Amino acid sequence: MTSLLEAEGLSKRYGRHRALSDCDVSVPAGRVAGLVGPNGAGKTTLLQLAVGLLEPSAGTIRVLGRRPAEDAAELARVGFVAQETPTYPNLTVAQHLMMGEALNPSWDASLAEARVGRLGLDVRQKARSLSGGQRAQLALTLAVAKRPELLILDEPVASLDPLARREFLQGLMETVAEHHTGVVVSSHLISDLERVCDYLVVLVDSRVVLAGDVAELLAGHHLLTGPRRDISGLPANQTVIEESHTDRQTTVLVRGRGPILDPAWTARPLSLEDLVLAYMRRGRAGTPGPSNRKGLEVVA
Amino acid sequence: MIRFAWLQARTQTAAVAAGVAVAAIVAVVTGPHLGHLYATTLANCRTQQNCVGSIDPFSNNDYALYGALGMLVLILPAIVGMFLGAPLLARELESGTYRLAWTQSVGRRRWLGIKLAVVGLASVAVAGLLSLAVSWSARSIDLEKANQFRYFDQRDLVPIGYAAFAFALGVVVGLLVRKVLPALAATLAAFVAVRFVAERWVRAHLVAATHTALSLQQARLGFTVQPPGGVTFQADPPNIQNAYVLSAQVVDKAGHQVSAAALRQFVAQYCPTIANVPLRPGAVFHAGHTGIQGPADPANPAAFNACIDRLSTVYHQSVAYIAPTKYWPMQWLEMGLFIATALVLAGVAIWLVKRIPS
Quick one: what percent of chain B has pLDDT higher than 90? Predict the structure, then answer.
């Protein structure tokens, strides 16, 4: 099966500002992929490239095996909910559904109406008077009712309260389960995504610092604690992601498949949030300094 | 898609259309009455030989409506450009809804093409309706005035071309500026500039001009004092009914334009009685072959007429004008020019929309 999203050397710059740098990422088919990273990391840029709202400065991106927004057929295969879930303030809910029907040949009117009914939205209400959560749900309904093969959602829950967040993600998961839609959803909070995603991409400072199956990532990382010591004695198949020392204790986050046999270490699994935060810190720390970066730009 | 394009545009379009409908009704209702008033006023003043006095009351009251309706036709295209054209894309880009619109299953170019067609046709229809109503309403006064080119851009076909152009211009400006309010202002400025250029430097070249030579004895002329230097002679453009006079120059037998200095010298040499008249600088004394019109002149009118006779043996007036029969060809051509420009701009917008924003 073709990947949901496949990027090679993908870069996007605005003048001298790099929004996305040399990004290689592949999201396999049938996944619900979370795209996590701090604000300004390039998540929106990557997703807008994926729906064809932006054109790459360099590299390629394929969505469901084709160039994004290449033609109407490709547009129909991807449903998109943009950041801040834009809707037309002057149009009613019913008029938004009419737009969906007019602009999408594969529109599933009964699905849209059922969804709006279930959410308790008044179809005569104008979008400007909807709450943030209702607007997000309306935007999701528009994206879902075109019956896409892939849903791309850009921080859909960022402006929602915790309850609305939960409801939104629940609705998303129901849709995924029912229609076997692939999903790429971004958030700056891993807690939003860990319940729904089975694949994870972490972006920091315009670069991909981690990507993989969530279960594999969790199985492949351990937090080792032991008496303070030098960490050079760790097996070669363990990569140190992060280390910290106190007066008496050393803590190391390692990535690797093999067992840790040294009894001085206590190995613990770690939560997805801790894992992602460690990679975010590393991505930040690993960012080349200003002089270094300038040199790189000249080469590029 | 057509239905949705209309759904999005209908609020502004309906507001503009409602305003136009009111104006059109006013025009149609008042037109015949105004025309009648004007005709009777004129007829009265002609019999009483006092047109200045009897036209004034008409001018001060009812005539304002005639002028206002014409002005409305003149500014409607700018309104169309600002309120239907400019926001078409600028609002989507400013509020971020383009991200919703351009990720539906309709290509961006097709999406824009349909919107342009729907709102553009509505713009043209609105402008056409108002122009039709006002042209019909003003018809009897226009005929009476016998100066059809004076209201060229407020009547008949050209307002349709202006509206189409202003609309397309607004769309392109909105696409480039990407903010509604600056786009409104920029559209207005660009539209006024283009209309000015077209009126000033293009219109006269749309149809072939007629050239004719007028004897100075038939011309509207006068004597004037221009400091420094003495009395000189000037010829106003002739008043040709329903024609558009492009230029009127005093030329010699070879057809070369005569300089003011040469004329002054001529007057000084051959009309000494006039040259020595103590006129206030800037004062103009209009003379006709039958006598002096305007302020009473201290000198003998016969002296002026003799001077004109003398002048006309050497010089004549060369006049270039657009003949009255060229009115309709010119209307069609100017409308066509603006519609063609509108289509080019629409093409530019459709081409650009795929490249912006990125």
Answer: 43
Cis bond leading into B329, ω under 30°? no
User: Closest partner residue to B100 among A71, A87, A102, by Cβ?
Assistant: A87
Partners of A140 on chain B (C-beta within 8 Å) are: none
Q: What is the pLDDT of residues B224-239, one digit of tens each?
A: 666 556 667 777 788 8
Q: Which residue type sits at B96?
A: G
Q: Does A94 reach chain B within 8 Å, measured CB to CB?
A: no
Q: How many CB pairs under 8 A join A and B?
A: 81
Q: What is the pLDDT of residues A251-292, one digit of tens each?
A: 888 888 777 777 888 888 889 999 999 998 887 776 443 333
List Cα–Cα distances, B129 to A172, B68, B163, B285, in angstroms.
Answer: 51, 16, 12, 46
Share of chain B above pLDDT 70, in %: 84
pLDDT in tens, B145-164: 778 888 999 999 999 999 99
Distance CA B330, CA B246 (A): 14
| Cβ separation A142–B111 shorter than 8 A | no
Asked if the C-beta of A14 comes within 8 angstroms of chain B's C-beta atoms, the answer is: no
Neighbours of B5 (CB within 10 A): 21
Q: What is the value of pTM for the model shown?
A: 0.87
- How many residues would you count in chain B? 358
Domain locations along chain B:
2-207+325-352, 217-314
CB contact under 8 A, B7 and A95: yes
ipTM: 0.88
Q: Which residues from A are below 8 Å from B102, CB to CB?
A: 52-53, 69
Cβ–Cβ below 8 Å for B7 and A106: no
Task: Residue A97: name the closest of A84, A83, A111, A77 by CA.
Answer: A111
- Residue B61 DSSP symbol: T
Q: Which of B7, B88, B100, B115 to mutate to test the interface with A (most CBs of A within 10 A)?
A: B100
Whether the CB of A148 is below 8 Å from some CB of chain B: the reply is: no
Identify the DSSP state of B321. E
What is the DSSP track for A115-168?
HHHHHT--TTSBGGGS-HHHHHHHHHHHHHHT--SEEEESSTTTTS-HHHHHHH
Residue B105 has its nearest CB partner, among A52, A53, A105, at: A105
- Strands laid side by side in the B316-322 sheet: B210-215, B316-322, B244-251
A5-213 CATH, one of 3.30.1330.80, 3.30.2090.10, 3.40.50.300, 3.40.630.10 = 3.40.50.300
Residues from chain B that touch A139, judged by Cβ atoms under 8 A, are 100
Contacts of A146 in chain B (CB under 8 A): 104-105
Query: Mind telling me how many Å the CA of A217 is from chain B's nearest CA?
Result: 33
* Chain A CA closest to residue B111: A103
Contacts of A206 (CB under 8 A, 6+ apart): A18, A19, A20, A21, A23, A41, A42, A45
In angstroms, the Cα distances linking B315 to B37, B230, B287, B292, B321 are 43, 19, 17, 20, 19
Contact B109, B350 (CB under 8 A): yes
Q: What residue segments make up the domains of chain A, in order of their start?
A: 5-213, 216-299
B100–A139 CB contact, under 8 Å: yes
Q: Per the structure block, which two tokens stand in for B78?
A: 């700018």
Strand, helix or coil for residue B81? helix
C-alpha to C-alpha distance for A115 and A185, rounded to whole angstroms: 20
Contact predicate A211/A35, CB 8 Å: no
Distance from CA of A90 to the nearest CA of B (A): 8
Question: Which of B4, B96, B107 is facing A84, going by the closest CB pair?
Answer: B96
Q: Do B3 and A102 touch (CB under 8 A)?
A: yes
